[in-house]
Design goal:
Rossmann fold, 2 domains, 5-stranded parallel beta sheet, 8 helices, 12 strands, about 40% helix, about 25% strand
Length: about 220
């Protein structure tokens, strides 16, 4: 099921970056630079959004005041996204009931992970869509073109890490860490898991549609 995000961010470059990245992970994002306009929109249907991403340094109204108005209306999960990363602001945010706090700058993929964690805790989702794939992290099932395959925990961890770094080179060492494998795990062990993963999702290593081998480096998700 599609998840909806309300983004309140007045830095238009940051706003576009977050919106584009969330779109890649199957989220529908509605973005506002003006907090008063965002609140008016939110009041029209407070249950429309699964999570709110809120900057603090906004025109006309401080982000904490926006947070108070949102929480007074509906208990939608809120993630603070702000350059004000000092402990005092974080404590104040949590006192107001925010669910998470990300200090800028941060990697967009970290925001996706935080959103997924919040929605799982709220019982709203255990699955999400990326490109051709729907992933269920609870059952460790991946659905592609109406065909469902079951992945081991290690395969799912590797696959998630590749997806979260799509179009970027990922080393075998990074995959070892992502799968919580011992640091002395051999590279060929990762290659074996990649081979099994490719087989399950129907990816031909000689003509890859999803996972490309990078000689001397590791792998890249290209789907």
């Amino acid at each position: 099921m599609t998840k909806h995000v309300l983004l309140i961010e007045d830095d238009l470059q940051m706003q576009q970056l977050i919106s584009d990245y969330l779109d890649d992970f199957g989220y529908v994002t509605r973005a506002f630079a003006n907090p008063k306009e965002a609140l008016e929109h939110f009041y029209d249907d407070p249950k429309a959004y699964d999570v709110i991403i809120l900057d603090l340094m906004l025109p006309q109204m401080d982000g904490f005041d926006v947070c108070k108005k949102i929480k007074a209306c509906h208990d939608t999960p809120i993630i603070i996204s702000s350059a004000r990363g000092d402990i005092g602001n974080k404590i104040h945010g949590y006192e107001l009931g925010v669910d998470d706090y990300l200090a800028k700058p941060y990697e967009p993929r970290e925001l996706v992970l935080r959103i997924e964690a919040i929605l799982r805790r709220a019982g709203r989702t255990e699955s999400f869509q990326v490109g051709d794939f729907t992933l269920d992290t609870a059952t460790r099932e991946v659905t592609i073109e109406e065909y469902t395959v079951s992945l081991t925990k290690i395969e799912m961890d590797i696959f998630l890490h590749l997806l979260q770094n799509r179009s970027h080179a990922v080393s075998r060492e990074q995959l070892i860490q992502a799968a919580s494998l011992p640091l002395d795990t051999k590279n060929r062990t990762i290659d074996m898991h990649i081979s099994n993963l490719r087989h399950k999702i129907g990816d031909d290593p000689k003509n890859p549609k999803y996972i490309r081998s990078l000689w001397g480096i590791g792998y890249k998700f290209i789907g």
